[in-house]
């Protein structure tokens, strides 16, 4: 846990908390680390979900050209 030393100000009826710059940077760093961990967890969950899906076998399609004779093409 970070020990904070805020200074409380009021301006135009609004309340503000001002932190020393070093404390601000530490909080910013911790938030970024939390976001990285959260993104890593989300990616891990997506990967697990993707790996758990059973892929269906697609039917085999014969792509060889069909030979068409004149008689088949133009019936007499």
How is this structure best described in words?
The protein has a domain of 53 residues. The model has no long low-confidence stretch (mean pLDDT 78). A two-stranded antiparallel sheet has the order 1-2. The chain is built from two helices and two strands, in the order E-E-H-H. The chain has 76 residues and is an alpha+beta fold. The chain is elongated, with a radius of gyration of 33 Å.
Which short descriptors sum up this protein?
76 residues, alpha+beta
Bin the strand percentage. Answer: 5-15%
What Rg is obtained from the alpha carbons, in whole angstroms? 33 Å
Outline the biggest β-sheet: 2 strands, antiparallel
Count of discrete alpha- or pi-helical segments spanning 4 or more residues: 2
SSE string, helices as H and strands as E: EEHH
Termini Cα gap: 91 Å
Arrangement of strands in the largest sheet:
1-2
């Amino acid at each position: 846990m970070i020990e904070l030393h805020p200074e409380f100000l009021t301006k135009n009826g609004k309340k503000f908390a001002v932190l020393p710059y070093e404390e601000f940077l530490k909080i910013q760093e911790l938030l970024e680390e939390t976001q990285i961990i959260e993104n890593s967890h989300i990616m891990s969950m997506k990967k697990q979900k993707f790996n758990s899906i059973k892929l269906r076998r697609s039917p085999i399609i014969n792509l060889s050209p069909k030979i068409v004779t004149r008689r088949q093409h133009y019936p007499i």
